Amino acid sequence: MKTGGFVILDTVRAHKQIVVMVVFFCLLLFGPMIPGQLENQIFLAAGIVSAWLASEAKTRARRGLVILAGPIIALVIVWRLLPPDQLFISRTTAGTVFLVSTIVFFIYCGGIIVSYLLKARSVGPNQIAGAVSFYIILGTFWSYIYTILEFFHPGSFNNVSGSEPDVGARFLYFSFVTLATLGYGDITPRIPVAQSLAVIEVIMGQFYMAIVVAYLLSIFIRKRLGS
Fold first, then answer.
1. Residue range 4-226 in CATH 2.30.33.40
2. What angle do CA 119, 125, 131 make, to 5 degrees?
3. Which residue of 36, 58, 94, 133 has the fewest CB atoms within a 10 Å radius of its CB?
C-alpha cells in the first residue's frame, strides 16, 4: 500500500509537464518579488527541467543538456564567489558570456520540447502543458535577445531604464507583449535592429500558433473522430 508521499510522487511523474507549467506561471506572477538576477536563473532552471522531462532517458538530448548546462552553472558560481572588485572588472565579459550561453541553451531546450510535441500521437494534459511551457520559454528567450542588444547599444528601446534586474523584468514584459502581438506601446524599439528583432518575434509567435498548436489540435480531433 502506497503512502501519501508515494502517491504525490506518482502524481507528479504522471503530470510532469503540468508541474513545470505551474512553476512558469508562478514565476511570471511572483517574479517582481524575487530579488536580483535570481528570477532569470529560476526561469533558466525551469526551462532545463521542462526539456529534461520532455526528452527520453539516456539519449543525446539529455547528454546535450548536461554538456551545455556546465558552462552556465560555472558562470553563476563564479559570479557568486568573486569579490566585488574583481566582479566589476570581469562584469562585461562574464555578463556577455552568460547571456549568450543562456540564449543557446534556451534554443536547445526549445528544440527538445518542440520535438516532443511533434512526436506526440495523442494529446493529453502533458502535451498541452508542454506547449504552454515552450511558449513561455520562447518569450523568455527573446527577452534575453533584447537584453543583449540594450547591453551593447544602450537606448535601443524607449522607456527602458533602471538597474539590471529592472531592465530584465521590463524586457520580459515587452517580449511577451510582442510575442502575443498586443502592442501596448509603452516600450518601443528605437533603432532598426531592435525593430527587426521585434518583427521576427511577432512572426515566430504567429507561426507557433499556426503550426505547433494547430498540429496538436489536429491530432486531438483525429483521435476524437476515430473513437
1. no
2. 55
3. 58
The pTM for the full model equals 0.77
How far is residue 204 from each of residues 179, 198, 199, 211, measured CA to CA in Å?
8, 10, 9, 10
Secondary structure (DSSP) of 102-156: HHHHHHHHHHHHHHHHHT-SS--HHHHHHHHHHHHHHHHHHHHHHHHHHHHSTTS
pLDDT digits (tens, 9 = 90+) for 102-121: 888 888 888 888 888 888 77
From 162, 146, 132, 159, select the one nearest 47 (Cα to Cα).
132
Pairwise CA distance, residues 65 & 101, whole Å:
12
Does residue 223 sit in helix, strand or coil? helix
